[in-house]
Write the structure tokens for this entry.
Amino acid sequence: MYQSIKTFAEQFAYAPKIENKNNLKKYKRFVLIGMGGSGLPGKLFKAWKPEIPLIIHQSYGLPPLCAAELKQSLIICCSHSGSTEEVLDGFDAARAKKLPLAVIATGGALAERAQKYNVPHVVIPKTGAQPRMSTGLMIQALAALMSENAALKELHTLARALAPASYEKAGKKIARTLENHVPVIYAAEHNAYIALNWKIKFNETSKCPAFWNVLPELNHNEMTGFDHVPSTRELSQNFHFIFLEDTTDHPRIRTRMRVIATLYKKRGFPCTFVPLIQSSRIHAIFASTVLADWAAYYLAQSYNVDPQNVPMVEEFKKLIIC
């Protein structure tokens, strides 16, 4: 895991190759079917370019769109392993309806089906890392299949611009503050998927509970759950709040962050502000991703848990086999 984080920027030197490219047309609408780490590339792409009509579907079958919308959309099935049950089901559903299809995988049944049915697809390299650590490869494959050539070119610049080692010290410091606490990550709505990414890293790498929410909505409900009285104090005493601070946030959002942090601290909750670096938007997104990786990695070290593998996920998969 340590090397996966330290060398993460190298993923952006990757040049995706589209197999069956002659069968790939240009589309203006897209649906990404992807679970867990395989859904992250779409979410980070939406955080980067929200104006592009990209729907993330994370269940069986297809999203609840009308037939005309589905026919006008490229259905991109993404499964790092190529064996994700829900994604394979989505592929089959789309093919049964004769919808435009594309695939991203390292291999497995999904890549086999793409090859069998002449579906445009990108086979990304197998690095031995978990899907959550392969977002650099998958987001480039996604950009290629959507014909977002300018975006792909900008992603390639991160191979040099992103320096994962430079965030290690800060990540280690955050990990120390989080020991024996449940992380809760807050961000403005336009950074929601970045906050979700942090939450996922803590869940899978540190093997600890973690939660996230967005402002201003949480000011109308969630924060009242932490206004404890003696009889409820034990329910919330171990939370630690991380605020992802962005200078591009609406000024009122920034004010709200400061005020809610003040109220939480008054009630005994530790709060940490983590600024998003202000370079390009995509650099800021992946710099925050790397920082979250370091924090989750060192928190895993303090808990003496394996930061790489996700045994409970594998156990669950075996138990749901029909």
In short: DSSP finds 14 helices and ten strands in the chain. The beta strands are 18-19, 29-33, 54-57, 73-79, 101-105, 121-123, 182-188, 211-215, 239-245, 271-275.
